[in-house]
Amino acid sequence: MEVDGISTSTVAKWNFPILVFFKDSRIALKLDKLGREILSVAIPVTMALAADPVASLIDTIYIGRIGPVEIAAVGISVALFNQVSKVAIFPLVSITTSFVAEEETIDKINAEAMEAEDMKNGYVDKVDTKGETLEIVQAVKEENGSTEKDEEKESATLEDDSKTSPAKPTTNTDGVTNAPNAKLAKRNIPSASTALLFGLALGVLETLFLALLAKPLLSLTGVKPGSPMLKPAYKYLTLRSLGAPAVLISLATQGIFRGFKDTRTPLYATVAGDVANVILDPLLIFTCKLGVSGAAIAHVLSQYLISLIMLVRLMQKVNLLPLSLKSLQFSKFLKSGSLLLFRVIAATIPVTLAASLATRLGATTMAAFQICLQVWLTSSLLSDGLAVAGQAIIASSFAEKNYKKATSAATRVLQMGVVMGLAVTLLIGLGLQFGSGVFTKDINVKHIISIGVPFVAGTQTINSIAFIFDGVNFGASDFAYSAYSMILVSMASIGSLFGLYKVAGFVGIWVTLSIFMGLRAIAGIWRMGTGTGPWSFLRK
After folding, report:
1. CA atoms of 94 and 34, how far apart (whole Å)
2. Domain ranges of the chain
3. d(CA 266, CA 44)
4. Over its length of 540 residues, how does the chain's per-residue pLDDT go in tens digits?
């Protein structure tokens, strides 16, 4: 039996929520309307996200030429900086994208409703005015004895005048004139102003935190006094901390643009900054003989360039000065941000702890681990482009209460992620096995890298699923589940890490990281697959 052209047996089939992941899998890569919308957001995001890790990889290549001690020192410093930055900014970026997408959609719906109302009122006024005019003309004609032909001629003249007369500007309830050719005013998006204020405040706090507590933090990660890694690690971390405000502001701005589904602007800004970083690296590291300090300075300057470009562009589109302090979304941000704060802490602890344990295995092992980790994170973050596209589209769809589109967007980005993960597995497996010499000439480091290749390459599909489900859950504003599930996953992973590290050392660390990502993927599948929380409509 068919209803509206759709088989009822097919409808019943998808009432099992877990099966929705296989829906329309044959057209996963089809460039239909939804596919084009996803890719128009995902491709620029992917390129922008890949640009920074690629710049970090180039940093790693340059620093690797100095020596294994320096590359190990920079590795642990980068892990520390990323840990603190993610704790500070990841919740802000995620909720900003969702909130801006929701505000943009609701604002668009309201604008369309107002436009429809204005058109309706304008039509009624026009009909009334025309009717009154015709009545007056008729009365005059009766007095003057006009003929029927004269009446038809004058009526036609009135109609022609109404068609050719220019549209008059109207004034809305806010006193803003809406002329047909009026220049569009800047949008007032409270979430955008709030996000930037939070980003600036958190950036300054991060700089103070890292600069004042650099040595104690390095000690906690295994770089003890007397270690050859302490001096270069301290130099790099303290200098890199000066760029924290720029990092947080630029990422907050990226979250705003993602909410607008404008991912090209962040791409152009990121590429410009990273190109500057790549140019400055050899000049400062080798020509100016600044070593690891030069690498840190180059990175800081590039981050300020990125934030400046995006802020200038954003100021052209959005009124960044809030209408009033009451219009800012402080309570909304704090409520959802606190949940994601706990989530990101739970998510980054296993990775940072893994880097700390690798440090205890010596400079050679840490150098190999750092190279493997950079490749692992760089390739895994490629799926974040699909995650961001899914988040923006799903958030807009939920705001419109278009649950069909939300479901289709979620399943499509997940299916695309699986295909991408399989392709990246093959690429990394071959590239890292035979191309490790790009990062280091040390035979011992290259040998340890070869041991990590199966884990770095083999987990790519799992990583894609895990990262994309982050975007799916954020798009549905399911922040509480994302936080609580990640805390449980992190606790299980940390327990496994200590046990496997004692048993298998370097291999044990990578087995644990594989378990960690596997549990994250399962947590994402469980929520939507069981049709619970915001996805409860899948069971109806």
Report:
1. 22
2. 9-111+185-539
3. 8
4. 443 343 444 444 446 778 888 887 787 788 888 889 998 888 888 777 667 666 766 777 788 788 888 888 888 888 788 778 777 776 777 778 888 888 777 777 776 777 777 677 765 555 555 555 545 545 545 555 554 445 455 545 444 444 444 444 444 433 334 444 434 457 777 788 888 888 898 899 999 999 999 999 998 877 888 888 899 999 999 999 999 999 889 888 988 898 888 889 998 998 899 899 989 999 999 999 898 999 999 989 999 999 999 999 998 888 777 666 666 766 777 777 778 888 888 888 898 899 889 888 888 888 888 888 888 877 766 788 888 889 889 988 988 889 999 999 999 999 999 999 999 888 888 877 776 666 777 788 888 888 888 898 889 999 999 999 988 998 898 989 999 999 999 999 999 999 999 999 899 999 999 999 999 999 999 999 899 999 999 887
Report d(CA 168, CA 118) in Å as an integer.
12
Separation between Cα atoms, residue 467 and residue 413, nearest integer Å: 11
Q: Give the pair of three-digit tokens for residue 287.
A: 């020509």
Reduced 3-state DSSP string for 160-205: HHHHHCCCCCEECCCCCEECCCCCCCCECCHHHHHHHHHHHHHHHH
206 is written with which tokens?
Answer: 């991060």
